[in-house]
């Protein structure tokens, strides 16, 4: 139990510190790297509570796709860091005010949850005999099957729309025609010439 608490506090501290560094780092590439570190620690926290499927999804989807894509986009952009820092002092009071309001709200929520008399009487539900991944799969493919398929259809339409919007026809650019390549015969592609001996090529 002591080891689990130590690992929990370690992951929590690193995740909070990484989250703070995401918004305070001046280099956007460093911010994305700290974001990846925060995702990894959040996945570790999911593993500690027994949600191994959510941990795997967090690593595969967010770290493997979203965060790496963010890093590629940030590295390809030509960012003027001097211009980004020009309005920092101008919006600092507003940012501090919003941060203070959010901190007060968090303290109120955590304080009301800790001081509530009903939280101490809540019983922890008995663990199920099936695993977390199996329970989630049963729920998705039974009660929410149509919604799950509808979300996949929406993502498919979004992919087709993104490809259609980015596909451009440029004049003078040679494009690949699959139909012509498939129906091309050896007679059209190869020309055999007979060369007399001694005449040279």
What can you see in these coordinates?
It is a single chain. The protein has 201 residues and is mostly helical. Among the domains are: 1-79, NADH-ubiquinone/plastoquinone oxidoreductase chain 6, subunit NuoJ (Four Helix Bundle (Hemerythrin (Met), subunit A), Up-down Bundle); 132-165. 70% of the residues lie in helices and 0% in strands. It contains ten helices and no strands. Helix 1 packs antiparallel against helix 2 (28-48) and helix 2 (28-48) packs antiparallel against helix 3. It is extended, with a radius of gyration of 29 Å.
Could you state the CATH homologous superfamily of one domain? NADH-ubiquinone/plastoquinone oxidoreductase chain 6, subunit NuoJ
Distance between the termini: 84 Å
Low-confidence spans: none
DSSP helix fraction: over 70%
Please, what is the average pLDDT? Answer: 77
DSSP helical segment count: 10
The oligomerization state is single chain
Rg over C-alpha atoms, rounded to the nearest angstrom: 29 Å
From the structure above, extract its key features.
single chain, mainly alpha, extended, 201 residues
List the helices and strands and how they pair.
Blueprint: H1 2-24, H2 28-48, H3 52-76, H4 81-84, H5 92-115, H6 118-121, H7 132-140, H8 145-166, H9 178-182, H10 186-189
Helix pairs in contact: 1-2, 2-3
């Amino acid at each position: 139990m002591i080891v689990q608490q130590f690992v929990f506090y370690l992951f929590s501290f690193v995740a909070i510190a990484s989250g703070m560094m995401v918004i305070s780092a001046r280099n956007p590439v460093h911010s994305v790297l700290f974001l990846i570190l925060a995702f990894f620690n959040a996945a570790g926290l999911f593993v500690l509570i027994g949600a191994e499927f959510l941990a795997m999804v967090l690593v595969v989807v967010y770290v493997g796709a979203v965060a790496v894509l963010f890093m590629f986009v940030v590295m390809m952009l030509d960012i003027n860091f001097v211009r980004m820092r020009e309005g920092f002092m101008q919006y600092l009071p507003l940012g501090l005010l919003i941060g203070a309001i959010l901190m007060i709200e968090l303290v109120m929520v955590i304080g009301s949850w800790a001081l509530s008399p009903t939280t101490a009487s809540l019983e922890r539900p008995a663990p199920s005999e099936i695993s977390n991944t199996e329970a989630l799969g049963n729920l998705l493919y039974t009660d929410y099957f149509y919604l799950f398929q509808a979300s996949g259809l929406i993502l498919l339409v979004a992919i087709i729309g993104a490809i259609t919007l980015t596909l451009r026809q440029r004049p003078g650019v040679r494009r690949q025609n699959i139909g012509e390549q498939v129906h091309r015969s050896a007679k059209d592609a190869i020309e055999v010439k007979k060369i007399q001996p001694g005449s040279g090529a």
